[in-house]
Design a protein that fits this description.
448 residues; alpha+beta; Beta-Lactamase; seven-stranded antiparallel sheet; 14 strands
């Protein structure tokens, strides 16, 4: 006991404890910053996906009809507002949604529409802080917005992007995702913006990382190392009490613990990536669902219907959604059947009458065709038990928290219903090949 007391109260030990505390604090801070940076990227990716998919919903003709406050009475303006609100309503975490266009001043943009500005001159306590001030002011068409310090806002006219760091303006602090709205000639006519509260970054970090636990754990580890180093006689006595066999057993146990910790960290990171991917796919599906014309879907029931203009429009839209979100492997639409355990395909981004019925090696790289290379057509039956999120999506946006498997591979699915008069007439499904997620986690653990 006296030796332990000397160890605790000795000047060398006290100095060592202080150094250990600083080292543990520095490592903990580094880990916290890494976790926060990862969660920032999660929010950026989600905002970009929502903006890129949402931008496809707007008609450039509607945008060209709105320039000044007097245009708020036009039906085109009401249509823009309705679409902005639909995007926000279908995507949890979106605080603001709006459309900008360029001006003659490269450092200023002009508002076209804002989800809360159906009547921009009616001021309410929109942020719920009990005070009506400039943060509750709704922008009107033509109102300027300064982007002199926002480089990403300028890039948004070229490609989907998001703020690299939280940005603050009169309405709060946000991460903005932005994407160009283009006409048929591919010319950008405006930019769709969606804002997510920056406070979400710290909320996600707090859920996945506890600085106090990490600090205490590291500090105890360093103290034990110090204890072993400074109390050599005590350690020698402990070693003499054990034979070589016990030492080897102990070393093996330590090695197994280390391997177990690494595997646990891998599984933990994989679960985070899967959840993040599923939520993002669900958001994209929910945003995309309103882009499909129910009349087109109603025409598609048989393989021969792939030659109809309706199928070509749906096929084109599915590919546009996938092109805007490169991580997506498969994009398709299904509908319910009279069998509760069965859905049927309406359209698929890789299936058309002018494409092969078999995609030899398209996904799995094999030379011989398998069922994984099989194309689908309107009316093709699909067993729901293979992908339960598609069944849940009949009631609301859904995604699977664990990889699912069918004849086309193993994947994560995000899905949302196409609703008409309160009833689901179809489901937009988006899949990511799980092998891509395994690679993502592996590279992340290596620090890439």
């Amino acid at each position: 006991l006296s030796r332990f007391r000397e160890f605790i109260l000795g000047k060398q030990s006290l100095a060592a404890f202080a150094i250990f505390a600083l080292i543990a604090g520095a490592i903990t801070f580094g880990l916290y910053r890494n976790a926060r940076e990862y969660n920032l990227q999660r929010i950026r990716d989600k905002a970009i996906s929502i903006a890129a998919t949402g931008a496809l919903q707007f008609d450039p003709k509607d945008i060209s009809a709105v320039h000044t406050p007097a245009d708020i009475k036009k039906p085109e303006y009401a249509k823009l507002i309705a679409t902005l609100n639909l995007i926000r309503r279908n995507n949890e975490g979106i605080k603001w949604a709006y459309i900008w266009r360029s001006t003659n001043d490269s450092n200023k943009l002009a508002f076209v529409a804002d989800a809360d500005s159906l009547n921009p001159y009616v001021t309410e306590d929109t942020n719920g802080d009990g005070v009506i001030d400039e943060r509750d002011q709704n922008p009107a068409p033509g109102d300027p917005y300064d982007i002199s310090s926002q480089l990403e806002s300028k890039k948004a006219f070229l490609e989907p992007t998001a703020d690299a760091e939280p940005m603050t303006d009169q309405w709060g602090t946000f991460i903005s995702g932005m994407a160009p709205i283009k006409n048929e000639q591919g010319i950008t006519v405006a930019v769709l913006g969606v804002d997510m509260l920056a406070s979400r970054i710290d909320e996600l970090t707090a859920q996945s990382f506890s600085p106090l636990v990490v600090f205490v754990g590291l500090f105890i580890l360093f103290v034990l190392i110090r204890f072993a180093a400074i109390n050599k006689p005590l350690m020698q006595e402990m070693l003499r009490a054990m034979n070589l066999k016990r030492i080897l057993i102990g070393s093996s146990i330590v090695l197994l613990v280390i391997v177990g910790l690494l595997y646990g960290l891998y599984r933990y990171t994989l679960n985070i990536v899967i959840e993040e991917t599923g939520q993002r796919l669900m958001s994209i599906a929910a945003t995309a669902a309103s882009q499909f014309d129910p009349k087109d879907l109603n025409e598609l029931h048989f393989a021969r219907d792939m030659k109809k203009e309706a199928y070509q429009r749906v096929f084109k839209k599915l590919n546009e959604i996938r092109d805007k979100n490169p991580e997506i492997t498969w994009a398709y639409i299904m509908r319910p059947t009279d069998k509760p355990d069965m859905l049927e395909f309406v359209a698929d981004a890789d299936s058309n009458y002018n494409l092969p019925n078999l995609w030899i090696g398209y996904y799995d790289g094999k030379k011989e065709p398998t069922e994984a290379d099989e194309a689908v057509w309107p009316g093709y039956q699909y067993e729901v038990v293979k992908n339960e999120p598609l069944l849940y999506a009949l009631k609301g946006p859904a995604f699977n928290e664990k990889p699912l498997e069918d004849q086309w591979g193993s994947f994560i699915t995000g899905a949302a219903s196409i609703i008409v008069n309160g009833k689901s007439i179809g489901i937009v499904g988006l899949d990511v090949d799980v092998k891509n997620l395994y690679k993502k986690v592996f590279y992340k653990m290596l620090g890439f």
